[in-house]
Amino acid sequence: MRDAKAVKLLLVLLVAAVVLSLGATAQACPTCAEGMSHDENAASLIRGYFWSIVFMMSMPFTVLTGIASYFYLQVRRARRLQPIPQPLPIAKLPPGLVLPSLRG
User: Fold this and answer.
1) How is the chain split into domains, by residue range?
2) End-to-end Cα spacing for the chain
């Protein structure tokens, strides 16, 4: 049991080391990073890329939230328009009438 934990820990540390060592490789597209790193006017272009990615990633959540809100409001409206069930009227018995008992 102790050996299995040591192997898992070693595997996790190995994966973490590999991921951290590849950080420079995954930093950016080499052409974009090299081409824009020395240009001060590229800052607005980089901001534009950033905002376009943010908006593209937020659109599915925005659309699904809008659809879910629409159906939620439709259900609330339908429940509000349903008639309130009235209790059944109790038949008035003439005075002195006794109902038979179900007890034996």
Assistant:
1) 28-81
2) 70
Tokens describing residue 58: 């937020």
Q: For residues 7 and 50, what is the distance between their CA atoms, to the nearest angstrom?
A: 41
The sign of the CA dihedral 44, 48, 49, 50 is positive
Q: What is the pLDDT of residues 40-62, one digit of tens each?
A: 777 777 778 888 888 999 999 99
Is the pTM of the predicted complex or chain greater than 0.70? Answer: no
Are the C-beta atoms of residues 36 and 42 closer than 8 Å to each other? yes
12's CB contacts (< 8 A; 6+ apart) are: none
Q: What CA–CA distance (Å, rounded) separates 55 from 62?
A: 10
Torsion-angle region of 33 (φ positive above 0: left; ψ -120 to 50: alpha; else: beta): alpha
CA-CA-CA-CA dihedral for 83, 84, 88, 92, to nearest 10:
-110
